[in-house]
Amino acid sequence: MSASLTLLDTRPDANDRQHFTLAGFEAHNANRAPDLRTFRAPMGGRICLMTGTDSVCRELARFLLECGATLYVVCRSQSVADELVHQLSFATRDQACPEVQVLLGDLSLKAEMMRCWREFQAKEPQKRLDVLVCGEQRFCPAKRLTAEGFEETFAANLLVGTYMLCPSGHLAMPLLQATPNSRAVLVSSWEMPLGSKGFGELQVVLKEKAKMMHR
């Protein structure tokens, strides 16, 4: 059994200008059924895990809760978690939605990611994962290394926040593959084109990453 992988690109481009305005969305939505503004898929009993708490992820979190899914969200700090819970509780106040489950951890650190994953497994008795959303969006204008020696933006958005979970990581993929009709969604960022490629340094990082992932 295999999980389905989706890339959600949130960078502004011509497609955004065509569809992601009110007029563009209504024109786009008119050709689709059901109505995306009101449709909620029945997801009771489905288990979802999300990294990232930006506006895109918060809207997706609200949608999943309104669909009845059990949702775990990894938050970097208690203040971020409190704000997320407050916003989601207010947004779904008129509906009988499950409460969001918070996991606290810094996704730029392997040790924190491992701890969050163990906490998720301990809290989730069904031993399944229907939807994984890798949406951590961190942007450090200046180069900054984590305590584990990796550039923070790269570590949070890709190395730890995405790679350790999915698609090649050893944490979430076994559970996704064991869950029927599971989905993995990788969210990109409009900030991505602002960074330099740095392929020479990246090769060094990738070699270190390979060692780190198999310790």
TrEMBL record:
It comes from the Eukaryota. PANTHER family: DEHYDROGENASE/REDUCTASE SDR FAMILY MEMBER 12, DEHYDROGENASE_REDUCTASE SDR FAMILY MEMBER 12. This is Uncharacterized protein.
